[in-house]
């Protein structure tokens, strides 16, 4: 049987495909911008028939139909590998929960799951089938290969707008593994817009970091205003022969590449290739990724593996944080007990960059933030707020950057850490931080 004949035999409507879902099932919605659209809508129509359907996914870019009803939580439960704004709203409704992960290990989680927790159904958007019978995952190699290996039923929703992203391994699923094929309405691929124009604080932080990047460095950028500002400044700089090995591909890389700064010629492994685990950005980025042989889509068990990261000389990792305490504990996940995002791969890149020959990891944050009532608060705190998550322990952090300067925590004792962190805090909070450091017995009398 030819692939097209098999395709025609497996082609069904979304309503027909989701009949395979039963109450109590684990149903995987894929990841980020290949979250299903037509299949989600079809499953929502079955709400009254279903109870305790446990959904998996992460980084939602559009609201899900299955959660439109007020009583959705009685029928569906969202289990997220990484939270975004839409998912935080579902947490508040009691419909969603975060699954703490070390992102690099996620493919193994799927492969090692007990039978009772494995996906009964996996359904997600893909690019159209190629001549060899493969449906490409688009910008989301991530963990989808492992997901498909272990799912009992696979349903693909074909979207002609999904970019076909080239790579190494685990970038697609073969038609022989697929039970049903659904042709959706080909909506635009979900976008994750930029964080707006860079602020003066973003620019100050970016300038401090860019001055530390050598020619031939290999870059990893996190999401957010500051990493994007760094990317924009790199695109305008005199840097050359840069490489890319990153968890998340973002728009800033497109700007840097089009400015001629990325060649990958100095990379120790995967020379000339921009390597990434998943990508979320604007249509400009998706168009750049489509069929681009310079890019290499790969599972996160490869992109986020400390051994791969550390093998790349002059590895530069740039990520955000919510806040940091005077002991050097870095929180990038929550505001107290209020969930914000997830662990992702930040710790892997912090550790891997430090192991790299000439490598550096930078955690950047503004010195302050304003609460809803306009009160100014310091992001450098005596201790993390009760319930805050420690993303990077006090032994892991290297360079910490605010608009007031850059410090390196490696090798510093407790009093030195406190002194250095207070030096890059907002001036309005420094005296109070010193008083708190004294109470915590991490301030020497000889300090000024």
Structural commentary:
Helix 4 (85-92) links the parallel strand 3 (76-80) and strand 4. The chain has two domains: 3-183, Glutaconate Coenzyme A-transferase (3-Layer(aba) Sandwich), CATH 3.40.1080; 200-439, 3-Layer(aba) Sandwich (Glutaconate Coenzyme A-transferase). The strands form six sheets. An eight-stranded mixed beta sheet has the order 13-12-11-10-14-19-23-24, with helices on both faces. It has a seven-stranded parallel beta sheet with strand order 4-3-2-1-5-7-9. It is of the alpha/beta class. The mean pLDDT is 95. The chain is globular. Helix 5 (106-112) runs parallel beside helix 6 (144-150). It has 15 helices and 24 strands.
